[in-house]
Amino acid sequence: MAFLEVRDIQVFYGKACSLNHVSVRVEKGAVVGIIGPNGAGKSTLLDSIIGLTDCRGEIIFDGIDLRELTSTKIVRLGIGYAPERRNLFPFMGVKENLLVGAYCARKEMETNLKMVYEMFPILEKRQNQESRTMSGGELQMLSLGRAVMSNPKLLMVDEPTLGLAPLVCLEISRVLMGLRARNGIAILIAEQNVNFALRLSEEIYLLETGKVKMKGVPEELKKETYIKETYFGV
Fold first, then answer.
1. What are the domain boundaries of the chain?
2. What is the topology classification, in CATH, of domain 4-231?
3. pLDDT tens column, 81-116
4. Where are the beta strands (DSSP E) in the chain?
5. What's the mean pLDDT when you consider all of the chain?
6. Which residues neighbour 139 within 8 Å (Cβ) at sequence distance 6 or greater?
């Protein structure tokens, strides 16, 4: 059994089907990418794993069925989540926002805070600055840092490069790969930026209109005519 195994899940919003029999696997320490256009169901998939939707099917993490658990209990099991919407507290300082992420890992709080500051030195410099005054790239760093504060075994990141400059995207990729190399964290990335996902991931799932249209290793998918025509304009 995989570290994370999503089996045949369905999610409906009213009569609209957002996810239609989607299955995804993530092995321990692996980096898996979920690519697809806006509205494909990528965020819904990650929301379902963390317990924010009413879904059908199975979601098994480290041998435990997550569908009966609250989001808090899922985080305690070892899943960190940096959502696209970030959900930061705008009138709280950087350090205060980070400490909110440590509520499930208080014993490791100081160690993880030090690690986050090493990952993103700008956050330490601005630890007392209100998050509402920060740039988009800094907010993304703060969101990632807060997810790391929960001491995750699996880190889920939704659209980490959305609206960010290329240099910031490189910094985000460096940090994610560093976390994987240093801590052995498995990473699940949902991303419209196909190049970013292909560069970081060992396995890719292409999600379109709520279904897995294609999956494989990046080297194989880069050669697929559909991928080249649809996502690279070749």
1. 4-231
2. Rossmann fold (3.40.50)
3. 999 877 899 999 999 999 999 988 888 899 999 999
4. 4-13, 16-26, 31-35, 55-61, 64-65, 79-82, 154-158, 186-191, 203-208, 211-216
5. 93
6. 86, 88, 131
